[in-house]
Specification:
By secondary structure, the chain is an alpha/beta fold. The chain contains six helices and nine strands; from the N terminus they run βαβαβαβαβαβαβββ. The longest helix has 19 residues.
Amino acid sequence: MRLGCLFSGGKDSTYAVYESMRYGHEIRCLLTLSPPSDESLLFHFPNVEITPLLAKAIRLPHLVSSVKGIDLHCELEALEGLIKQARAEYDIDGIVHGGISSKFQNSHFSICCSKYGLRVVNPLWGRPAVKFMRELISNGFKTLITSVSAMGLDKYWLGKIIDEKALDRLMQLSDRNRFNLNFEGGEAETLVLDSPIHHDIIDIMESQIQWDGQRGIFKLNRVGLKSK
């Protein structure tokens, strides 16, 4: 199928692009919704402004739309507008998203797509958390933690790469503090610096940690691309 993919640059959406390509689908464009704050119910917030660079690294067309407010109505209105634009400009048959277990997100994405006769493709749906996280590592995804907001995840994790050692520690913390290991509940956010679908590597040239004592963001102030 000819597909557009909801894209934040994080591990879930990037892996959904990778899996869709592996299954033989044609990804025609990436779609990013930019919310005004981290209170968004549906969309990724930290470092969303650098998604055009991430799309350039993957070498796919990229559509971006700002969400005007923080309520669900505003988010769905922006999503519908972007899906409509993608269908008109890229003649897509469906939309890919990286949801794993959130029925709330999947339901709203499905309703929006059905209005335009588009199918929903969710290649990660139902994948066990440990299996998924290990797949990321074994398939060469260099995944950076860009925000944390759960008990058990402190300032130490901001800016860390999820490798085997880090994953083992995250599994222990997840068991102890009962947060979702794949972070789908917003416990943390991520950004993929490199993967098999990246033609260029994301190069972090300037960053800062913003920490309020309970949660924080690894803010990317200046980034570029490096050839592989």
